[in-house]
Specification:
With 557 residues, the chain is an alpha+beta fold. The chain has one domain. 36% of the residues lie in helices and 18% in strands. The protein is globular, with a radius of gyration of 22 Å.
């Protein structure tokens, strides 16, 4: 598997990439925080150092990420957290956005055709945000420090200023054309009328003011009153129909983690409306039947990985949706017996027809996200993924709050069989409905070894979240890699449709063999970023993916 047993030149390239952004792996006996931004990880580690637990640190880190990397996540978005307490209690908090009450299945269909722009940019693309309630609810149940203590670090950075990293200016430049249509968004990240630059000190006083209110009043500061009216006004000014009632009625939901096993390890991951956990477990179950570290050639392990992913993503398209609205056969999809059936269909020497993947059910005719992984010294674990969906979400800014709103409505199937922004095809299971949560690929995952904390892992990057999280697990478990190697080396991604295998790097020899077997390759560098914490022999090792220039951090005591 080039993604796991690489030739020396690819390993060298990957590790050079890691070293170019500094030490992306940290070891400590005191717990660990791994996130998409060095400063956010430091904030989380300081909370641990000040007596907080994994949840306290997770909330502080996520709020800080929303300030530093607003193109990826923030209070205008939503997400999922998987938590396991040192007592053994585990839970999932779903604070995914929901469709507004006025949403309809055909709201993006114009003259019989989906108008993709409507679901990606502007007010109609906005789902009811969940992060403000979700983080508070998470803390209320499992936090240890006072609420204000976990909100204040992000508030102070927004008020006093922070050094702009490399990614924010890059993302602003990539969105230059869209920003011309959304001057309120550009104002939030400008200095003297020009987009901020790396190394520049920048403040977000509007966000600081909101976070101060949030630290005192909790979710009411977002979902009720003057601030809620500002959110609604911003959406309506950009063509949407979000209402005050939509905000007031939003509820985050506690769920039971999906549970599975892989090579004797216990896995806790996301149930629907995320497809991530189901697809991850289905793929791991298929791969468990192979001795991956026994393959002497990267091509052979790459092939079975590609085929396993295609089967799991075919089932994602056919079956996954919000289980509060539709029946989802999760237990069948994650069963070992079903994986045995799918494994029999894999022919490593050739590619099957599109229809041969997943179940026999026929489909009807039809670059944003942040992740935090934490294990604290007491053994509490957290994996939390949050997003505004694509870069800067809907591009709709709420100037009074200093935030950007999501475009999560694009994650629904706007029309069965029509791909979304990530090329994913869905069916009526994921059709738009008022109050429904769109399908997601977010895959926050916790892994136990002999009942004790072993790994917290997850990623950003649309559907590549699943394959990135998967390959990190495989590399650590099957190939004995360090966390840094596991997140740094080149990865591949396959998702059934489009019928392509995306690879960050491939040798000419492997490319020729894969092509001969029927795989269509596309070189596509840097398409996901993984954050992982591993505990071995009492030592916590954290690694942040160099693709997103993150760094882990540990408390000093």
């Amino acid at each position: 598997m080039k993604s796991t047993s690489f030739c020396n030149v690819i390993v060298t390239i990957a590790l050079t990439l890691a070293s170019s952004v500094g030490l992306a792996q940290v070891s400590s006996p005191n717990g660990m925080v791994a996130s998409d931004h060095p400063l956010a990880s430091q904030v989380g580690a300081k909370v641990l150092e000040d007596g907080g637990n994994a949840v306290d640190a997770g909330v502080a880190t996520m709020l800080t990420l929303g300030l530093l990397n607003p193109f990826a996540s923030g209070l205008g978005g939503g997400g999922f957290c998987v938590v396991r307490q040192a007592t053994g209690e585990s839970a999932v908090l779903d604070f995914r956005e929901v469709a507004p009450a006025a949403a309809t299945p055909d709201m993006y269909v114009v003259d019989g055709t989906v108008d993709r722009k409507l679901s990606l940019e502007g007010g109609l693309a906005v789902g009811v945000p969940g992060e403000a309630q979700g983080l508070h609810q998470l803390h209320e149940k499992y936090g240890k420090l006072g609420w204000a203590k976990v909100v204040n670090p992000a508030m102070k950075l927004a008020r006093d200023g922070f050094e702009v990293g490399e990614l924010l200016p890059q993302r602003l430049a990539q969105k230059a054309e869209s920003l011309e249509r959304h001057p309120e968004l550009l104002k939030l990240y400008s200095s003297n009328g020009k987009p901020v630059k790396a190394g520049q000190r920048h403040k977000n006083p509007a966000l600081a003011k909101f976070l101060l209110a949030y630290s005192k009043d909790g979710p009411a500061a977002f979902y009720l009153g003057k601030n809620a009216s500002s959110v609604v006004a911003a959406v309506k000014a950009n063509g949407g129909f979000l209402t005050l009632e939509d905000l007031a009625n939003y509820k985050a939901t506690w769920r039971v983690p999906l549970k599975g096993t892989y090579r004797g390890l216990d896995i806790l991951t996301m149930p629907p409306p995320s497809s991530g956990g189901t697809t991850l477990l289905e793929t791991l179950n298929i791969l468990e039947g192979y001795r991956l570290n026994g393959f002497g050639d990267g091509v052979e392990s790459d092939t079975v990985l590609i085929e396993a992913l295609k089967h799991a993503f075919a089932d994602r398209a056919a079956w996954l949706g919000d289980a509060d609205f539709v029946d989802v056969p999760v237990q069948k999809l994650i069963s070992k017996s079903y994986a045995d059936e799918l494994r029999l269909r894999i022919r490593p020497w050739t590619v099957g027809s599109v229809e041969s993947y997943g179940t026999s059910a026929q489909l009807p005719t039809d670059s944003g996200t942040s992740h935090v992984s934490i294990i604290d010294r007491a053994g509490n674990m957290l994996a939390c993924t949050s997003t505004v969906n694509t870069s800067f979400g809907s591009m709709v800014a709420v100037s009074d709050l200093g935030i950007v709103l999501n475009n999560q409505m694009d994650d629904f199937s706007a029309q069965p069989g029509v791909p979304n922004a990530y090329g994913l095809v869905g069916n009526a299971q994921n059709a738009i409905a008022a109050g429904k949560r769109p399908l997601s690929s977010m895959s926050p995952t916790l892994i136990l070894k002999s009942g004790e904390p072993f790994m917290a892992v997850g990623a950003s990057g649309g559907p590549t979240i699943i394959s990135g999280t998967l390959q990190t697990i495989l590399r650590i478990v099957d190939f004995g890699m360090s966390p840094l190697q596991a997140v740094s080396e080149p990865r591949l991604h396959a998702q059934w449709l489009p019928d392509l295998v995306f690879m960050e790097a491939v040798t000419d020899t492997e490319a020729a063999i894969l092509a001969k077997r029927g795989h269509k390759l596309k070189i596509s560098p840097g398409f996901t970023a993984v954050q992982v914490v591993v505990k071995r022999d009492g030592v916590y090792q954290g690694a942040s993916d160099p693709r997103k220039k993150g760094l882990p951090a540990a408390p000093t005591h």
